[in-house]
C-alpha cells in the first residue's frame, strides 16, 4: 500500500475527531454514510457516462443496512458463493446478482440458481458440469479467464495470474477442453477476468490487451465482459479517463456490456475503527500501547496483506516526538497494528480513530482469544451516530458448540 494519505482517509471528518466520537463504545466500527454516498456517486456517474454496469463485490463490504445508500448507483451485487448471492438478492432487491466461485458444490447449485442472475465458472470442467443446468434455468453463464498477465508486484497471494494459479482458465486449458467438448463455447454468454488489486487504470489497460490477445476469437461472440474488481476508482487521483477508454474499447470492439465489480472502491475510506488505549508498556527503547482492539481479530488484513492502517492525528514512526507501537490485547505476539508517532505519549483511556476501516473488516473479523466482536455503528451525513448492531458472549459461544 502507498504511504498513508491521511487527508483522503479522514476527509469525511474534516481531519479532526468529531466531539460525539467520545460517546461511542470501543472497540467499534463506524461506517460513514456520507463517504459511502460519495463513492456511490462516483461509480454511478461512471456508469451513466459510459454505459458500463457497476456491482458491489460483497466480500469486501457486506454491511447490508447501508446497501440502500449504494443501491441507486449500482447495477447490483457480486457474490463469492451461495450466502453472499442470497444476501445480495435479499438486501439489494430488484438488482442483478452475479456470482463467481472457484468451484461450486453440486448440492448448492439448485439454490444458487434461485438467487443468481449471472453465474461465472472458473474452469471448463465446472462450466461443462453446471453450465447446461444454469442455462436451462435462464441464467447468464460466464467463464473466468486467466490472461496470464501479472501487473502487480509484491503481493503474490493477491495475484491470480501468478504461475500455477487456480483462478481463471488459461488459453491452453480452454483449447484442451474445447478439443474434447467442441460445444463448450456455445454455453458462454460472457467472459470474466479479475486480476487487479488496489490498482489504477493503466494496469487494466495492459490486462485488457492481454485478454484481447488471448481470447480474441471468443470476445465478439459474448454479450458481456466482466472486468472484475481491484479498480481503485474512488481513490483520489485515480485515472478515470483511462478506465473509460478501456470500457469504450470493449464496447466498440466486441459489442459487449461491460461490468465492473469493485469491492474496495465502493466503500473506500468510508469507515473508521474506534479503539481506546488500555495500557502502555515500555520495553527497552520500545513503547507499546495495548489497545482494546486486535489486528488479528478486528482488522486481519493488517497482518494478512500486510499493511499499516491510517490513524487520525498520527504520523509515521519517527516523525513526531513520541513513537509508539500499537498492539492488541491478545496472546499473539504478532498482534501488532504498526508503529506510529504522536506529539505526546498516548495514555490509558485515549481514543484512537483508524481510517479506511469499512472494507475487509466487519466481513472478515473473528473471535480468536475470545475477543468480543466490535459493535457496528453508522455515521449519518449530518454527523449523528447510530448503533446498527452489538455483539456479546452469545455470538462468541454460538459458533463453537451446541
Ligand atoms: C475480490 C474480488 C472482487 C473485489 O475486489 P476489490 O479488490 O475489493 O475491488 C471482485 N471480483 C472478484 C472475482 C473478486 O475475487
From TrEMBL:
Cofactor(s) the record lists: pyridoxal 5'-phosphate
Annotated InterPro entries: Ala_racemase/Decarboxylase_C (IPR009006), De-COase2_C (IPR022643), Nsp_de-COase (IPR005730), PLP-binding_barrel (IPR029066)
CDD domains for the chain: PLPDE_III_CANSDC (cd06829)
Molecular-function annotations in GO: diaminopimelate decarboxylase activity
Superkingdom per UniProt: Bacteria
Residue span, Orn/DAP/Arg decarboxylase 2 C-terminal domain: 159-357
SUPFAM superfamilies attached to this UniProt entry: Alanine racemase C-terminal domain-like (SSF50621), PLP-binding barrel (SSF51419)
UniProt KW keywords: Decarboxylase, Lyase, Pyridoxal phosphate, Spermidine biosynthesis
A Gene Ontology BP annotation from the UniProt entry: lysine biosynthetic process via diaminopimelate
One family name in Pfam for this protein: Orn_DAP_Arg_deC
Positions with a binding annotation for substrate: 264, 301
Protein name: Carboxynorspermidine decarboxylase
